[in-house]
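Recall the central idea of this unit: under ordinary conditions, the amino acid sequence of a chain determines the structure it adopts. In this exercise we apply that idea directly, starting from the sequence alone.
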Amino acid sequence: MDKLFDQNELCSPVLRPMTEADLNVVTQIEKTAYLYPWSKGNFMDALACHYGCVVLEHIAQIRAYAIVMNAIDDLHLLNITVAPAEQGKGLSHRLMDWIKDCARRAHCSGILLEVRPSNHRALAIYTKYGFTRIGLRRNYYPHVNGREDAIVMRKLIN
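Accordingly, the structure predicted from this sequence is:
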């Protein structure tokens, strides 16, 4: 008899705090997702500074993560990454909802982020979530041809 459903479909991804024990997996995802990834030390620093650091697990495996910090009136989104094999499954939307909730709980007026102009997928997600371009940071990111600008985006929190 054919299965009517996949047992794994019944398991929802779980959002939980990132721990130091997660960093080997997180840095591996980071390396597969980016040409210029954060180092394990960057993640350790974020944990040590008590930034908002979460992982999204599904079927006991980390599939995505996000890091935010409170920056006076705004919540600053420092890193949001979905493992390349997991992209397109809505995990970034779950993380974006968490980020918006963090901003509200911290009484922030908005969420601020930087994004590469070449990261079309991220730009589309941020635009869908109501982020608008508010500036440009010249030569912000390392790039194979030297440096790449960063688009600064902000979303107001209602």
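The mean pLDDT is 92.
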